[in-house]
Amino acid sequence: MATLEELTDQARQDIENAKPLTKVIVSGNQQTVVELTDEEYEAMILSQANDMFNAQENGYKSDRQNAYLPIDEQLDMQYWDKVNGTSLWEEHIAEVKATYPKPSA
Question: pTM for the complete prediction?
Fold first, then answer.
């Protein structure tokens, strides 16, 4: 797992490789294309690094949410597991957790 500092360095390199980045300034009917300022580049680097860190630390949560069956289907699985003496629901949950593990601290 990368630290926020390492991800900031990576974001800085990614953005350096993408330079020059520009924006459009609209004034009345006139549009002007200008390169980002140093402050805007720095804000972009920090934003990208924080996004990467958040994805690294919490991405497994949304991956799991997308992989879990809908709750009504899970409840039905639990009912039929109880009736049939099976463990399909537990196997489903274990498979999702194994596929999208929580990052180690």
Answer: 0.68
